[in-house]
Amino acid sequence: EAAVTQSPRNKVAVTGGKVTLSCNQTNNHNNMYWYRQDTGHGLRLIHYSYGAGSTEKGDIPDGYKASRPSQENFSLILELATPSQTSVYFCASGDWGAETLYFGSGTRLTVL
Amino acid sequence: QQKVQQSPESLSVPEGGMASLNCTSSDRNFQYFWWYRQHSGEGPKALMSIFSDGDKKEGRFTAHLNKASLHVSLHIRDSQPSDSALYFCAASENQGKLIFGQGTKLSIKP
After folding, report:
1. I need a surface site. Which of A14, A92, B24, B30 has the fewest CB within 10 A?
2. B13-37: per-residue pLDDT in tens?
3. A59 SS3 class
């Protein structure tokens, strides 16, 4: 089964602080995605990547940066965290033209 | 407005009953549709995909797609307590970037 690992599982940050969420996949998939999940909004796409060195803006990119240094790793960076970014964040991987995205177990971020 | 809208928001079905979930897209560019299921504390997992008009059956799950009305549904027969979860409809233009609906919370009552 495809494996996507996120770290940390839980994170508490202060307003204005920098937060980095990490994601690692062992599926050798080209594409990786960052979503946030909020009640009433479902899953919303923040950033995605087609391969090492590439990042693309999703539907809600403001306040977030992404980094894809290698095929396996994709990070989400909050340079100046705000309470509105309190949410559960999911990373996923998949191949172009494939039918399925494989999700990690999520990171619960609380910004105080 | 979300491009993928799901209904109902929540649904309660007796064990052994039929659960029906609905999804409508507002974007005619969406050609590919998926259903994902998320149990509490876990990430979403793909249930099934449907790309052509009509029905697609996988075990107790049947998906139906009508591209003309941009409507896709999921029907679960003989519902089990383990089917209790959050169900997401997702759509894509090109099988790459997936756009998700807001989810339907399904509860199966023993």
Report:
1. A14
2. 999 999 999 999 988 888 889 999 9
3. coil
